[in-house]
Design a protein that fits this description.
Length: 389
């Protein structure tokens, strides 16, 4: 359908150069905003107007979401309060409930996370096999040159660690993909890696005859995995029937991508809320999670469940999470800094482990509801409470 005679012309040259007030005045005319609308737009909440304008482009106001705390989490024998930013009350309640069910058997156990992420450089066309030898022959000097531009990162134990090169077949012919492995320490890492691969691409262009094209971080951070496990007591879950029901629902998701998508959405409910609270890139996290779920050639659940010898339910999750506690919004947004304080964490690895636990707890609570009273009944109880005033 083509809209005719639209009253708005969206072609506004240099809109970004206007002040927030000038943008609001223009929108007042274009969109018939009234004084009350402008008053709401001018309420920047915990952001200053100046900081809001700094954080994004073409800013006209600030969109506020509730900042909540999920309780009951115990991860690697340490208790945490989990900051969450979400408009959905059932997300916070479910995470807290899932964590409560895990406490009887010690809470969540998570493996130490490496802070390695990958940057990719596309080289095409792949004309000669000696291209591989030429690049890898100079690997150490290339890595040293990259690290010389990041002395602080290197002094902390991070920096460029390795180079590998793959030949792939595409609809446009064969090409090489050079992959740079970087330890980004406590940063999310995208900016660091993008800078490195762009610099490396310039060096390669002078070394080889082939064309160097795309130079960018990969959001599929398979070396930065959160791997967590928890035992959920059969009696607290509601008995053997509930355990069996959860196992049957999980088996459904293992073979059916339509169910697996909703299964994984439940996991991301908690992780995304934590990522928003801590100022992390939710788009990168979501992209990595769903790509990882498809790596075996079929979209599958990110968590798995089985019954132990005592009849309790054991849950495991493995999910790539590029999260940081320094840089970007994490270091700028006032609530993100408060969220890090509430968590009491000192490293990105710790945050990633916690996030995996949150995803597993969130998922278990959803499966428990689905296996018993049903998602909608549990969800609508909270929904009615929210809107009963």
């Amino acid at each position: 359908m083509i809209l005719q005679n639209s009253p708005i012309n969206s072609r506004i040259p240099k809109f970004y150069e206007l002040t927030i007030k000038e943008r609001q005045d223009l929108l007042r005319k274009l969109s018939n905003l009234n004084e009350e609308d402008i008053k709401i737009l001018n309420n920047f909440g915990n952001l200053s107007m100046e900081l809001g304008d700094q954080l994004s482009e073409n800013v006209i106001g600030a969109y506020t979401l509730p900042f909540s705390i999920a309780t009951n989490f115990r991860v690697n024998s340490k208790d945490y309060l989990i900051p969450m930013v979400t408009e959905e009350s059932s997300v916070v309640a479910a995470a807290s409930y899932g964590a409560k069910l895990a406490r009887k058997h010690g809470g969540f156990t998570c493996e130490l996370v490496q802070n390695l992420i990958c940057g990719q450089i596309q080289i095409l066309p792949a004309k000669k096999e000696d291209l591989v030898k030429k690049i890898l022959t100079h690997k150490n000097s290339l890595l040293d040159k990259l690290n010389s531009s990041h002395p602080t990162l290197v002094s902390l134990g991070g920096g460029a660690k390795d180079l590998t090169l793959r030949k792939i077949a595409t609809s446009r012919g064969y090409m090489y993909i050079l992959e740079l492995e970087v330890d980004v320490m406590d940063a999310m890492g995208a900016n660091i890696v993008n800078t490195m691969v762009e610099n490396l691409g310039e060096q390669l262009q002078s070394m080889i005859q082939s064309r160097v094209l795309a130079k960018i971080v990969s959001n599929l951070t398979t070396h930065r995995l959160s791997q967590c496990r928890a035992i959920f007591d059969k009696e607290e879950l509601g008995g053997k029937e509930i355990v069996d029901n959860i196992l049957d629902i999980s088996a459904f998701g293992e073979v059916d991508p339509f169910r697996a998508a909703t299964h994984n959405k439940g996991i991301m409910n908690g992780i995304t809320a934590l990522a928003l609270a801590t100022g992390n890139d939710t788009r990168a996290i979501e992209a990595a999670a769903h790509a990882y779920a498809s790596m075996e050639g079929k979209y599958k659940p990110l968590s798995k469940y089985y019954e132990d010898n005592q009849g309790n339910l054991v849950g495991k999750i493995s999910i790539p999470l590029a999260m940081g506690i320094v840089g970007g919004s994490t270091s700028i947004h006032p609530l993100s800094k408060i969220a890090i304080k509430i968590l009491g964490i000192t490293s990105a690895s710790e945050l990633i482990q916690i996030a995996g636990a949150v995803g597993l707890g969130q998922n278990l609570a959803a499966l428990r509801a689905l296996a018993n009273e049903g998602i909608q009944q549990a969800h609508m109880q909270l929904h009615r409470r929210k809107f009963s005033t």
